[in-house]
Amino acid sequence: MEIFWFIIIAIVLVVFFVLDGYDFGAGIIHLFYAKTEKDKEVIAKSAGLFWDSNEVWLVAAGGMLFMAFPTFYSSVFSGFYLPLIIVLWLIIFRAIGLEFRGQFDYQMWKDIWDKAFGISSFLLALFFGIALGNIVRGVNLGGVENGVSIYEGHYFFLPLWSSSFSPLSESPGVIDWFTIIIGLITLVTLAIHGANWIILKTNSSINNKLKTVIFKLNIVLSALTIFSLIVWQNINPNSLDNFIETPYLMVFPIIYISGLIGLFFIKKLGKDIYGFICSTLLILGGISSSLASIFPAMLPSNNVVNESLTIYNTAAPEYGLSVAINWGIIGFILLFVYMIIQKRLMGGKIDKMDYGH
Amino acid sequence: MEDMIFYDRLQFAFTITFHYIFPQLTMGLSLIIVYFKGKYLINKVEKYNDIAKFLMKIFAVNFTMGVITGIPMEFQFGTNWAKFSELTGSIIGQTLAMEGMFSFFLESSFLALFIFGEKLMGQKLHFLTGFLVFLGSWGSGWFILATNAWMQHPVGYEILDNGKFVLENFSSLFSNPWLLPAFLHNQFASVATSSFVIASIGAFYILRDKNLDYGKLLLKTGVVFGLVSSILLAFPTGDWNAKNVAKYQPASFAAMEGIFETEEAGAEIVLIGQPNMVEKKLDNKIAVPNILSFLTYQKWDKQIPGMDRFKKEELPDNIPALYYSYHIMVGLGTIFIGVMGLAVFFLWRKKLFNIKPLLWTIMFLVPFPYIANITGWYVAELGRQPYLVYGLLKTSEGVSPTVSSGNTLFTLLGFVAIYLLLGLLFLILVGKTIHQGPKPQTH
């Protein structure tokens, strides 16, 4: 039952990053490449029409985590207190950027909210990557100092950074050089994903240029990926054990690699949707590989005193989990219906749709 | 430890108070929009559709605000109240996860279609998307109230040796006797807020002699919806809730009614007075004997326990705030029935649009349903103190064990600054929308 909910929540998280990922990515592209007002508006619109229903996936993931793994939820949310609250602030700024840019028709107003949208998308992508880096790196559970826990074994608190910025120190902070690498990987991945979304959904004048951008970013991403794997081996020598023990888990890294290879052919791909599928594979492969490598842990412990948080020692009892499956199935069927309706009515290019006027 | 709780409570109180300004309008307004849209579908008079679209703009701004101030609420259970989340998550996580699954997905899937898709879909489908948004927003209220009802009156649980609450009976979360009265009271309050808002906009247009047709329609609809919801708020829903408090939280009942000493026979109802916590009495009191006993138990001489019958630890920790919140809510509710009753009377006599003082009153009444809504929630939340889960888990036992008060103060200041900006933007945008007013359809 724990495994079942773990998989469900992982899927919801992946869907969140695939969906909200493209509007984060659209924000990053907007920040660096949108020059004319027409492009700016249509790119903002390609995010603005969808961000709200995409972010519901984050709320859903949070709610399910709360219900199925309450100990994990409370430990992680309080332990990563500062970065999470900062993420909330960025989400707020991004949303008001998207919602308010069209409310007054003069350039200065639009510029302000375009920047709010772009910069907060950029920082959010970076922060979500850093969060993923923290999860795979693990934390000092129990706040152990000199072999003694200062909190209960499943609680911790991370400062934003420690003076050494090193993942190898006894109690690393949220931001260290390893988590920054993962943050950059996420940033580049989502920028590629956003560019693919813009190409898919709009007729912006930079669509052709974006294909070159994707190609170049993909080279950067490949280099970063190889570098991070080497580094990760140094931080955690056991990081590949799960894949050696259970070889079929290799499917996740293979998904990632196939997305990476596919994107090198971005200019030759027949349809715009193929590029978007490739970057979706990157996100799916990246997240699932990371989770698979630490499984059954959800947050590894960096010390020998306290055990890692796993899907087993943080789960809610059996009864609640099985009741929730019943309503969960109904919920997902309904959701599927909504998505089909939405797809039918809002599919295709969005350049001509009303937006905020 | 003491001020750690203080900042955590202050941050939650601040963020939830600000958040609740928005959903209380969107829930009621979605009903009113569906009403106008439905009226247009039936009799095809364009102005109903124009009004529906005008209100939709106000709705959209409020909805965005509600979403972006709502996400922090879900996060804060984990960030600031980790121990509470750990101990009760397997129960309240159910209702909160269901809110995401059944309400937010529904609401957000159809909102963009409702706002941008009228031409795309045709009128019948457009009405349907509006109805689904309404369903989603009321469903959200239902799940939040179910969560809160469990905290006010826990049911269907078992407590393990390690202190964790475990769900034993899922359906009891929804048959909780606290839930239905609280939900209905909350929803009628939200209908009242939006009725007062549209009545106020209508009065504004009439007084300015602008958009007269629309203004009259808004005012007329607003005062009728406003009167009906205000009456339903007092009776039966307010009455039910008071009886629930008297039954399940007698110590809070004594505190909110301001009964310091138990009376031999029937208890009086306090209309005005200031709690004096040193001498344990009300200063400058005006009260009517025996009424409270009658209202609560339909018996004039039924004894109601005062605060002297409870230990200090069982009583709410901020009695004056609870007492004032309750009396402000009830006082405003009474005034609402009076003003709206008068307005409906003159509407019936076909004089309403000419009585300037009444129009001015209605226009300026608009902040007060918000105040009544928020003080109403303060009654529920302050009344539950000193517990998070009534009678079982103290508020002081629920905070995050690793988050220091310095960090909480930092984030509280951040929220204050950002919400100040949000509030300002909100007023500018809603002001702009009202200033532009409803527009006739251009073909």
UniProtKB/TrEMBL annotation, chain A:
<keyword id="KW-0349">Heme</keyword>
<keyword id="KW-0813">Transport</keyword>
<dbReference type="Pfam" id="PF02322">
    <property type="entry name" value="Cyt_bd_oxida_II"/>
</dbReference>
<feature type="transmembrane region" description="Helical">
    <location>
        <begin position="177"/>
        <end position="200"/>
    </location>
</feature>
<feature type="transmembrane region" description="Helical">
    <location>
        <begin position="116"/>
        <end position="136"/>
    </location>
</feature>
<keyword id="KW-1003">Cell membrane</keyword>
<comment type="similarity">
    <text>Belongs to the cytochrome ubiquinol oxidase subunit 2 family.</text>
</comment>
<feature type="transmembrane region" description="Helical">
    <location>
        <begin position="273"/>
        <end position="299"/>
    </location>
</feature>
<feature type="transmembrane region" description="Helical">
    <location>
        <begin position="212"/>
        <end position="235"/>
    </location>
</feature>
<feature type="transmembrane region" description="Helical">
    <location>
        <begin position="79"/>
        <end position="96"/>
    </location>
</feature>
<feature type="transmembrane region" description="Helical">
    <location>
        <begin position="319"/>
        <end position="341"/>
    </location>
</feature>
<feature type="transmembrane region" description="Helical">
    <location>
        <begin position="247"/>
        <end position="266"/>
    </location>
</feature>
<dbReference type="InterPro" id="IPR003317">
    <property type="entry name" value="Cyt-d_oxidase_su2"/>
</dbReference>
<keyword id="KW-1133">Transmembrane helix</keyword>
<feature type="transmembrane region" description="Helical">
    <location>
        <begin position="6"/>
        <end position="34"/>
    </location>
</feature>
<keyword id="KW-0479">Metal-binding</keyword>
<protein>
    <submittedName>
        <fullName>Cytochrome d ubiquinol oxidase subunit II</fullName>
    </submittedName>
</protein>
<keyword id="KW-0472">Membrane</keyword>
<keyword id="KW-0249">Electron transport</keyword>
<keyword id="KW-0812">Transmembrane</keyword>
<feature type="transmembrane region" description="Helical">
    <location>
        <begin position="55"/>
        <end position="73"/>
    </location>
</feature>
<keyword id="KW-0408">Iron</keyword>
Automatic annotation (TrEMBL), chain B:
<feature type="transmembrane region" description="Helical">
    <location>
        <begin position="183"/>
        <end position="205"/>
    </location>
</feature>
<feature type="transmembrane region" description="Helical">
    <location>
        <begin position="217"/>
        <end position="235"/>
    </location>
</feature>
<keyword id="KW-0349">Heme</keyword>
<keyword id="KW-1133">Transmembrane helix</keyword>
<dbReference type="InterPro" id="IPR002585">
    <property type="entry name" value="Cyt-d_ubiquinol_oxidase_su_1"/>
</dbReference>
<keyword id="KW-0408">Iron</keyword>
<feature type="transmembrane region" description="Helical">
    <location>
        <begin position="409"/>
        <end position="430"/>
    </location>
</feature>
<feature type="transmembrane region" description="Helical">
    <location>
        <begin position="358"/>
        <end position="380"/>
    </location>
</feature>
<feature type="transmembrane region" description="Helical">
    <location>
        <begin position="12"/>
        <end position="34"/>
    </location>
</feature>
<keyword id="KW-0812">Transmembrane</keyword>
<keyword id="KW-0479">Metal-binding</keyword>
<feature type="transmembrane region" description="Helical">
    <location>
        <begin position="127"/>
        <end position="145"/>
    </location>
</feature>
<keyword id="KW-0813">Transport</keyword>
<dbReference type="Pfam" id="PF01654">
    <property type="entry name" value="Cyt_bd_oxida_I"/>
</dbReference>
<feature type="transmembrane region" description="Helical">
    <location>
        <begin position="91"/>
        <end position="115"/>
    </location>
</feature>
<keyword id="KW-0249">Electron transport</keyword>
<keyword id="KW-1003">Cell membrane</keyword>
<protein>
    <submittedName>
        <fullName>Cytochrome ubiquinol oxidase subunit I</fullName>
    </submittedName>
</protein>
<feature type="transmembrane region" description="Helical">
    <location>
        <begin position="324"/>
        <end position="346"/>
    </location>
</feature>
<comment type="similarity">
    <text>Belongs to the cytochrome ubiquinol oxidase subunit 1 family.</text>
</comment>
<feature type="transmembrane region" description="Helical">
    <location>
        <begin position="54"/>
        <end position="71"/>
    </location>
</feature>
<keyword id="KW-0472">Membrane</keyword>
